[in-house]
Write a structure and sequence with these properties.
Layout lengths: L1 E7 L8 H14 L5 E7 L19 H11 L3 E5 H6 L11 E4 L1 H10 L2 E4 L1
Length: 119
């Protein structure tokens, strides 16, 4: 089993980097070649993706639905606590399965990862 870590800085909306990151993560989660321990850590403006009920740009639920599907596939998804605090969202409701994380946790995830992908 491989451990794959995504570190995402891209804002949820405004560019396609978040969408691209989640599409790749979804493709990795859905493949059947190898079992993968998939972890996503959102930093900077990427933490806003964890907020529920944002309007989807397309039918199918958009980014929220992608996060829900990743959680259902066993992915761990965390939002940087410091980044969430800076944006005033640390105490807000999050998409089920998304949690607040810390930099020491990201450090542990990084050391445990076989692959680290950044967006």
């Amino acid at each position: 089993m491989q451990t794959v870590l995504f570190i995402i800085h891209a804002p949820a909306y405004g560019s396609e980097r978040m969408l691209s990151a989640l599409r790749l993560a979804t493709a990795i989660a859905a493949q059947e070649i190898e079992t993968v321990d998939l972890r996503l850590f959102m930093m900077s403006d990427a933490v806003t993706v964890g907020l529920p009920n944002q309007p989807a740009a397309s039918a199918g639920g958009g980014l929220q639905q992608m996060l829900i599907e990743l959680v259902e596939h066993g992915a761990q998804i965390k939002l940087c606590r410091t980044c969430a605090q800076a944006r005033g969202i640390v105490d807000l409701e999050l998409i089920p399965g998304v949690a607040i994380g810390t930099l020491p946790e990201l450090g542990e995830w990084t050391l445990a990862a076989d692959k680290v992908i950044t967006f």
